[in-house]
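The instructor's notes for this session suggest beginning with a concrete chain rather than abstract definitions. Hand out the sequence below and ask the class to guess, before any prediction is shown, which regions might be ordered.
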Amino acid sequence: MRCSTCAVTFPSFEFSGDTDMATDGFVAATSMDTDAVALGVATVEEYRAGYSSGQHLFAARVRQKLDLNMVAIDFVRYEDHRPSSPGRSFQLFQESYRPPEAIYACPICGGDAHVEQKLTPEVFRDAGGQLILVDGLTLRST
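After discussion, reveal the predicted structure:
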């Protein structure tokens, strides 16, 4: 991710599954010192706190447990890039369609952070990134 205000870059992680229920309870925290992301399972307290607060509690737990500078990345909004031209053909709409873009808050300055690229866990690791698995979590790629 890259902040459009202060230009800092940082990694993040998006869990993926067939349904939302398949990834419910998984949490991530980002290192601001290295190219690393901690992944784990929310504790009961973290889960009950709700999505954003739970992410922050997880980041605090990882900071304390592993002595790493980990932060939670807050989702802010979706930006819709749909062309608004009434009367356009569906074919032209399909050619210019871009899905909504998720915008996150920069953990440094609070500005808008945008996803620059999406990598598989393997490619992230091959590029020097580190995935820190806590709580006995394992990753399975498809």
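Then share the key points. The first strand starts at residue 2 and ends at 3. The chain is about 25% helix and 25% strand.
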